[in-house]
Amino acid sequence: MSNKVSSNPKYSMHQIRPDDRDFSFLKKNTLKTIFLHSGMMTIEIYINSKVNLIKLSENEGVNIMPNIDFAVVSNNSHSFSVQSIDNKNPIIEIVDGVDNRTEEEINDYKLIKNAKKVTKPWGYEIWIAWFKNHHVLKKIYMLEGNKCSLQYHQQKSETNFIVEGQANVLKDIKIENGISESDALKYFNDIPNIENYITAMRPGDYWDNNPYEIHRVFSVESYTAYEASTHQLDDVIRLKDDSNRVSGFIKSEHY
To answer: How distant, in Å, are the alpha carbons of 77, 154, 203, 211, 239 from that of 157?
Structure first.
């Protein structure tokens, strides 16, 4: 059986291993993203009595729209899936393009190849899938000896799963909804024994960050993780940052 990583009310995330053959967790009425970290997978998608044979390999994936019939007919992969339900139609993908963002209506299914790379001072992110009102899937790589911003989100929920490397994760620091950035930073600075909020994470470990929870990741070794989340990707309140980045969207990282 696949490993269920998160059961957030707005999305679910599974780790798929090479010996997994039961894909009943991928529900027909959900929007699904499947992405291969390594290996190979073959999927049949059935549309209007036609069989569409999809062969995926490392760093490739597919988005399958709700109520489209499909079957995973061959799996020898280490991969991840995210699925979500929202009654809003049509299904809209947000595309982080060469020099702007656009919205694209998706019908039936869409292959994922050459996903967008977003540069960071500490490494990079691969933006695999981003659906308006649904879910997001990203691949994250952080170089050894770095750390992300000390941050929190006002709306966004996220789940991170480490596949390679090691990290120390500062988490579970809950703050009051609607708090100002200055008050949030003061609250953080006044916490005694902050090391009690740091957890060592290794391959196979995962954690959730909910709205209004301060968090930060420190790379002990260069690490790779997959992050599933809700769709509010610009919802980042940076309280501290080694590169003095401001909160929210940073255009230079994208274009």
So the answer is: 27, 9, 21, 6, 18
**Residue-wise pLDDT tens digits, 133-180:** 999 999 999 999 999 999 999 999 999 999 999 999 999 999 999 999
Measured in degrees and rounded to the nearest 5, phi and psi for residue 240 equal: -145, 145
CA 131 to CA 231: how far, in whole Å?
6
What SS3 state is found at 56?
A: strand
48's tokens: 């209007």
- The string of pLDDT tens digits covering residues 17-60 is 998 999 999 999 999 999 999 999 999 999 999 999 999 999 99
- Which sign does the torsion angle of CA 152, 158, 164, 168 carry? positive
Q: Is the dihedral of CA 247, 248, 252, 253 positive or negative?
A: positive
Return all residues near 183 (Cβ < 8 A) that are at least 6 apart. Answer: none
